[in-house]
Structures are given as C-alpha cells and as structure tokens.
Design goal:
The chain is mostly helical and 184 residues long. 78% of the residues lie in helices and 0% in strands. α3 runs antiparallel to α4.
C-alpha cells in the first residue's frame, strides 16, 4: 500500500523551487546583458573566422587555377604574358603558390636563354626560410645543376651535402652531382 505524501515535504519542495526560480531571475537580471553580449560577440567572432577561412580557400583556388592556366600557356608556348602573371602569383599569400610561381619563373628563364636570372631565382627560393623545405631543396639542386660548370668541386659538394645523404629524396640527383664533383 502506498504511503500518503507528507505535507511538510511538499511545502519544503515548493519553497525550494521558488527560491531557485528567484535566484535564477536575479542572476539573469544581474548578468543577463553581459552573457547575451558575450554570446553575440562569440558568434560574431566565429562568423568572421569562417568568412576569413572561406575567403582564403576561394583565393587559393583562384590562384591554383591561374597557375594551371600559366602552365597550359607555357606548354603551348604562349609566353608573352606569362612573366607578368607569374610575378603576381610570386607575391601570393600561399607559400605553396608563391614557391611554385618562383620555381616556374626560374624554369622559364633557361628557355629564354636567361641562365643568370634563373640561377638568381633558384637561389632566392633556396634561401627563403618561409617556403617549405622541399621547394628550397629542389631550388638548391637546380641552381647547382645550372652553375655546375662554373663552380669549384668543393663548393658543389658543400652545397649538396645535406641533400646527398642516404634516405634523402634528393639523394639520387645530389649524389650523382657530388660524385661528378669528386671526380673532377
């Protein structure tokens, strides 16, 4: 058989519930505006961050498409405006786009019989610590290959030493040039 509820328990629960409701109302009056402002500020910051991320992604996609178009023009030997387009891409915010544009500028140089400009661009990429290491290593390798005949063997060995170590992805090319320098 069920026990009848005690009227004093019921009264205590009702008083406790009213006390909590009053405390919540007082808290909302005291801090509600600050909490609402903080929430609005947080949502605005998240929206701004999402907008910035989207803008960066769209800009990177646009620059990638432009780089692809430049490669198509180079392949089709339409080189008249390629240097100007590569110069714009060489100033991109994306380090990958920037490095690729600089390496492409250097690679197009020898096709126009401009070895000095190509070597300078490769050295610029190789010395730029803001660019990813694989791009810097590729630029070092290409610069040494272009300058190989003009360099002293010990200079070649010194420049390629970090790349000519076993396990390095550049080991084959760097090791071959180092071996040729040692044979001189």
């Amino acid at each position: 058989m069920a026990l009848a509820p005690d009227p004093s328990d019921s009264f205590a629960r009702e008083v406790d519930e009213n006390l909590r409701r009053d405390q919540l109302r007082d808290f909302a009056r005291s801090y509600g505006k600050w909490l609402a402002a903080a929430l609005v500020l947080f949502l605005a910051a998240v929206a701004g961050w999402l907008y910035w991320q989207d803008r960066q992604a769209k800009e990177a996609a646009r620059q990638s498409e432009e780089l692809h178009a430049v490669f198509g023009d180079i392949a089709a030997e339409r080189l008249q405006d390629v240097p100007q387009r590569l110069e714009r891409l060489a100033n991109a915010d994306s380090e990958i786009i920037r490095a690729t544009a600089l390496l492409t500028q250097a690679a197009v140089g020898p096709d126009r019989n401009d070895r000095v400009q190509a070597i300078a661009k490769y050295k610029q990429v190789a010395g730029d610590e803001d660019l990813p290491e694989p791009y810097r290593n590729a630029a070092t390798l290409r610069a040494v290959a272009l300058e190989f005949d003009a360099l002293k063997p010990e200079d070649i060995i010194a420049r390629l030493q970090p790349l000519a170590e076993a396990g390095s992805p550049w080991f084959g090319s760097a090791g071959e040039m180092t071996a040729m320098a040692l044979a001189c």
